[in-house]
Design brief:
single chain; about 280 residues; two-stranded antiparallel ribbon
């Protein structure tokens, strides 16, 4: 950069900082907190004040988000299958290459961690990873909804609802159980049932990660001096990181445990009688 460009850049930065300081000073008397951090986090977890009426039933907003995300994924998958995949070429374009890389990555993850019975596993972890990633980024869209009390709220990520996290954790556990039964029958089921805490750990890991992001963002918002521009950066950064990390963690854990329970059981060879007889004669001598 030339000296002139450097000066212009410094002037722009100084102007932005001055505008932020001016905004903080001018809005100091207008800033009112509608709820404490404890009340806000309790509402994020329990959703007591932002229930939404769905066919006459009061449901958590995370359920509405789950329906929307699921519908978007299904419609997109149908469009790709009907209009895009039949037109695939030997020399792929950008979208075809991106799609093939994504499918290949999840397929390779399934094959590397579960060499046996991995056909369905690759499809499941691809779907679960896509749901977690898109569902976590969904809260950045800012879809509004009206609560049963007539207030306007922004729909959260589906997995920010503890019920959604538990459902996905239990579904992953059932997939692992099906792999164990398909490969080793009752023995495989026994292997899976030994890990009875697995669905709980999966569920609360996802829910805790999303809840921590909401807590950090709320803490930033609670301070007036930090409530300009910075919450946007923090919110986007935490949301994207959680989307990537949680999608990777759940798919990796599912494929690892699936590989353990679906590994074919091999009976240990019995010791030869000759060795037992020889050992007894040596003891007698």
């Amino acid at each position: 950069m030339t000296k002139k460009q450097t000066c212009i850049f410094l002037i722009i930065v100084a102007a932005v900082i001055a505008a932020l300081i001016t905004g903080i000073v001018l809005t100091d008397g207008l800033y009112e907190r509608d709820a404490t951090i404890q009340e806000t986090m309790q509402d994020v977890v329990l959703h007591e004040r932002d229930k939404i009426s769905l066919f006459g039933l009061a449901v958590n907003p995370g359920l509405i988000s789950a329906f929307i995300v699921t519908g978007v994924i299904l419609v997109f998958a149908a469009i790709v299958r009907i209009f895009v995949i039949p037109k695939f070429k030997l020399i792929p374009g950008k979208f075809q290459m991106l799609l093939e890389q994504a499918v290949g990555a999840f397929g390779g993850l399934a094959r590397s961690n579960s060499p046996h019975k991995n056909g369905f596993l690759g499809a499941y972890i691809f779907a679960a990873g896509a749901y977690i990633f898109i569902g976590t980024l969904f809260e950045l869209v800012g879809v509004p909804a009206v609560t049963a009390a007539g207030e306007c709220v922004i729909l959260p990520a589906p997995l920010s609802d503890i019920n959604g996290a538990i459902t996905l954790g239990c579904l992953s556990y059932l997939v692992i159980l099906s792999g164990g039964i398909a490969a080793n029958r009752l023995r495989g089921a026994g292997r899976t049932l030994k890990e009875f805490s697995l669905p709980v750990s999966m569920s609360f890991r996802m829910f805790g990660a999303l809840l921590s992001g909401a807590l950090v963002t709320e803490l930033v918002y609670s301070y007036l001096a930090l409530s300009f521009v910075l919450p946007v950066i923090v919110g986007v950064l935490f949301t994207v990181l959680h989307a990537i990390i949680q999608a990777y963690v759940l798919t990796m854990l599912t494929s690892l445990f699936y590989g353990e329970v679906s590994e074919p059981y091999v009976k240990k060879p019995k010791k030869q009688r000759e060795k037992k007889v020889s050992s007894k004669t040596e003891v007698v001598q």
